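Folding Query — how this chain folds
Tokens — whole-number codes for backbone shape
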Amino acid sequence: MLTRRFALCASVFTLAGVAPAVAQRHPPPHPHAAHGTAADQPPSSPADTPIGPVDTSAKWAFITDFNTGAVLLTKHADDQMPPSSMTKLMTLYIVYSRLKAGQLKLDDLLTVSEKAWRMGGSKMFVQIGTQVSVQDLIRGIEVDSGNDACIVLAEAISGSEEQFADLMNETAKKLGLTNSHFMNSTGWPADNHYMSCRDIATLAGDIIRQFPEYYHYASEKTFRYNNIEQQNRNPLVQRGTADGLKTGHTEAGGYGLVASTLRGSRRVILVLNGMNTMRERAEESERLMDWAFANFEDVTLYTAEQAVENAPVWLGDSRTVPLVGGKDIVLTMPRNWRKTAKVDVEYDAPVRAPVVRGTKLGTLTVSGQGVPNMQIPLVAGVDVPRLGLPGRAVAVVAHYVGGV
């Protein structure tokens, strides 16, 4: 196995001019041949990050880069915790799915049941027996965190809130939310109702990615319904430092928040839970959001069609084939840590002709101190037909005689 490696110096980010490490797994061929709860953890314990521990008063925390999926901060991120009203992201995800599929419309009118009207906690103050549009119910959830609005939608979609909870759990499995289980549509305290910070961040990312046409509701600062105007409970939305998504609070879970911010072309998703006051939630979320942008940056290592390596081809009408990412290879890197990063490329060499463009031929691996590990498949950038019979004969003779 031949290995070549290089450090990501500044010149790499202008136009890659340095060859990556290459591992060739074969010589030239012969021509004939668990989880748990963190409630008992001290709230001041630090979170883990690629650049070292960071203190946070949140009991549970997770920060990720939306574009690359890089994990920037984690603290008990896979523990099953009380998600409070952050649960409502799953209710909204299902509503948005129905809207996109044409099974609901924003101007559909839904009837308010007695259960929805009587529901306690945060409300948009719907009245029993009245009809409310889907769009107003969405705003009632996004801005007012209305438990009553959730129940109206849940009953309309599934017949009852209990059956809607079953749908929530089915959807969670499809989305790969492995530490989530739902008993209701609102986040009202209930045994066996939990989510993890990582799952909440995943769900938030799916909403932003899949339903951009509805995401704007999360950034509305006020909503008036039934002559009652309420302000968005998300402090980062109120301050204009985030464009969504949701807050939560219960005695068991403390004060929590999931927020997303776009600065330039870079988006970050933050989930915190288990704080003691609303003020602490606001200050800690803003501090850690600023930390994420100040300490990391997204770097385009290679563009979609840029050759990472030119691999030798055996018996092809071209001697090499470019290995490309097929899409821009973007990494989230700690600022001022780029010189510590290492890039390795591994593939079977030589590549046997014929080669079909888009065929996976190798893997690019990025690693290093302070750099989140990342693996990217590399594919053939062009077709390479096989040589005709005379050409193959010449190539075989050349291999034996000249070692080429």
Notes: The two ends are 19 Å apart (CA to CA). The chain has a mean pLDDT of 86.
